[in-house]
C-alpha cells in the first residue's frame, strides 16, 4: 500500500472505523483530536492511503512540552541555565489502524514525527529533545528500537535528543518530508 501524511482535518477525514487496538488512542482521534487542534493544544497528522485521502489509517500528534530540570537526564541539561525546564517536542498520541499494522506504517509515522520536530526545533521553536510517554512495554520497546532512551525517574517516559532527531531527519528527509510511504 501507498500512504500520504496530511494535516488532520476533523471536517474532512473520516475516523469512524479507525481502531488501533487501544481505546485511549481511538477515542482521542475520534473525539478530541480536532478540538485539541482548535484549542492549540496539539496538532494531529494522519496517514491516508493514496487515492482515498479520507479514511485515517494512522496518526500522531505533536505539541510543545518540557521536562523539569531536576527530572531531565544529564544529556539534556544545560549548565548555564540551571533550574529551567528543558524544552521538548512532545509526541503525545500515536496509532495505526489494525488493518494497516505490520507494513511499516508505524515506523513511517514515527520518522515523520521526528523529522517534523527536528525542523520545528531548527526553524521555529527551541527543543532539546523529542519526548513520548509509552502506553505499555510494547510501545516502549518500539520507541527504544528507534533510539529513544528512558528518563531517569520513569521508564515509560522516553526521550530522543534533538541531535539524534536531526540525524534521522537528515537521513530520511527525501521520504519523510514528502510525506509518502510507497
Tell me what you see in this structure:
Strand 4 (86-96), helix 2 (105-123) and strand 5 (129-133) form a beta-alpha-beta unit. The protein has helices at residues 23-38, 105-123, 137-145, 162-176, and strands at 3-7, 43-49, 58-67, 86-96, 129-133, 149-151, 154-161, 180-181. Helix 2 (105-123) packs across helix 4 (162-176). It is of the alpha+beta class and 182 residues long. It has an eight-stranded mixed sheet, sandwiched between helices.
Which regions are unreliable across 5 or more consecutive residues at pLDDT < 50? none
Molecular shape: globular
* Count of DSSP H/I helices: 4
Distance between the termini: 6 Å
Strand composition percent: 25-35%
Using the CA coordinates, give the radius of gyration: 16 Å
Oligomer: single chain
The overall average pLDDT, rounded, is: 87
Amino acid at each position: 500500500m501507498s500512504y500520504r501524511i496530511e494535516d488532520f482535518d476533523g471536517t474532512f477525514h473520516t475516523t469512524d472505523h479507525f481502531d488501533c487496538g487501544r481505546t485511549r488512542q481511538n477515542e482521542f482521534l475520534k473525539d478530541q483530536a480536532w478540538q485539541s487542534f482548535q484549542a492549540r493544544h496539539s496538532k494531529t497528522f494522519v496517514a491516508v492511503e493514496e487515492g482515498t485521502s479520507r479514511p485515517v489509517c494512522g496518526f500522531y500528534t505533536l505539541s510543545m512540552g518540557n521536562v523539569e530540570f531536576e527530572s531531565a537526564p544529564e544529556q539534556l541539561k544545560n549548565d548555564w541555565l540551571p533550574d529551567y525546564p528543558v524544552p521538548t517536542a512532545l509526541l503525545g498520541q500515536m496509532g495505526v489502524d489494525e488493518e494497516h499494522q505490520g507494513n511499516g506504517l508505524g515506523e513511517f509515522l514515527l520518522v515523520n514525527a521526528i523529522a517534523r520536530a527536528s525542523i520545528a526545533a531548527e526553524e521555529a521553536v527551541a527543543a532539546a529533545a523529542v519526548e513520548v510517554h509509552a502506553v505499555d512495554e510494547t510501545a516502549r520497546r518500539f520507541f527504544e528500537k528507534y533510539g529513544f532512551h528512558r528518563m531517569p525517574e520513569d521508564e515509560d517516559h522516553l526521550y530522543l535528543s534533538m541531535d539524534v532527531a536531526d540525524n534521522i531527519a537528515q537521513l530520511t528527509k527525501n521520504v519523510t518530508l514528502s510525506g509518502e510511504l510507497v
